[in-house]
Fold:
Amino acid sequence: MTATIRTAALDFERCYRAASARDARFDGQFVTAVRTTGIYCRPSCPAITPKPGNVSFLPTAAAAQRAGYRACRRCLPDAAPGSPEWNVRSDLSARAMRLIADGTVDRVGVAGLAAALGYSSRQLTRTLTEELGAGPLALARSHRAQTARLLIQRTDMPLSDIAFAAGFSSIRQFNDTVREVFAVTPTRLREEAAKRTSADAAVAAGTITLSLPFREPLDRSWLEWFLRSHAAGGLEAWSGDGYVRAMRLPNRHAVVRITLEPKHVRAQIALADMRDLAPAVAKLRHLLDLDADPRAVDDALMRDELLAPAVADTPGIRVPGNLDSTELLIRTMMGQQVSVAAAATHTTRLVAALGEPVTSDAPGVTHLFPTAESIAEHGATVLTGPARRIGSIVSAAGALADGSLALHAGREAAELRADLLALDHVGPWTADYVTMRILADPDVLLGTDLVVRQGAEQLGISLHDSAHWAPWRSYVSMHLWRTALTRRSARRLAP
Structure:
């Protein structure tokens, strides 16, 4: 418990006030390590607040585990929303954390993670240890422990199968990690879960139902409109109050259904391979921008008198991310200069022609989005529209297929934007839009977007001077987009 860890500075007084107030906004942004009990908690833990002399604050659960603390089984700090820092910041640590959450270390190791970020393994490990209190292996181990807990508590899989599904290299490593992190054996963890009744129990073999937490408030109407209006037949569907789709994952695929509940997002994930649970959860959180700090965003934007009415009308608006970077780029290029509905129609045709069939009980969900290799090889005979646009889409797919274009959340925004602009038929709007959604970048103003400009005009806002909105210009784009679309719908419905 006395290990000395050099981490990025945390303001002790600020952290202690947040913990004393049990402020859930700070869950995931740091953990509270209690020396007298040897446990670490999320700031909102309902337990009695320890005395200042008995606590320290660490930036990650992995740092607390490395220092010898175990996770509180009352507040489950590993189940807190992720830190919004990893999206706001663009430095090496932030970019690494995005990829670690997506399971990159488990798939390609520290060397593969370092290569994706353009650093040596030694440089990466040193930077993460200094800033976050743990290196990439320890950070990945912390994520594996969370996945293991979910599988232990939410499935009846044999514990030996869970060990490998969660990414551990041996059953012994799995048992040791669970004991170290949760202070109980895997068997005991399952027995405790079995005693608790839960509405979120698994509903079928291979299906896990989870409650994905977020920081309140969350404007459900914007996310629901976005998912519903962009849905492409065969790949995804809006059914009742839920969004259903097939998604490609590192090992196989999954069919997911998400419902935006008042206090959480309910996610039913039917996995073809349980090893894909952690990446699936990370992708869903990214799609819905669930790690955002909406109050920080809203408080900052409310200072603009012209924008304030739109912010007040839709508190907690989110910037949608994506589930598949190849899909995002191809669909964005297909949707250039056509309506949202027309773009969905084009996508439906492409999915039907080149998508891989999946077995699904969800009506309307039959295929995965085609791979870059498939589009590069067959796109010219399947896609419709202007010849130059078809050629540019096929060319972009070829660049993705041969690895000359890398699209992942660990890229630097400026470099990714430059690579996108180098593609034929990709202009500033496409590059900005794709960069914003792949990186969950909170500070991209879509100033060239027609609908965004219409929203700005309706609110009397100038887009030429946007520095005062930084670092939240992506959220400004969403507010302006929503303003214009809402008024457009009102005009259509007017008698």
Q: What stands out?
A: Residues 1-7, 199-203 have pLDDT under 50 and may be disordered. The chain is about 50% helix and 10% strand. Residues 473-493 form the longest helix (21 residues). Residues 5 and 359 are 48 Å apart (CA to CA).
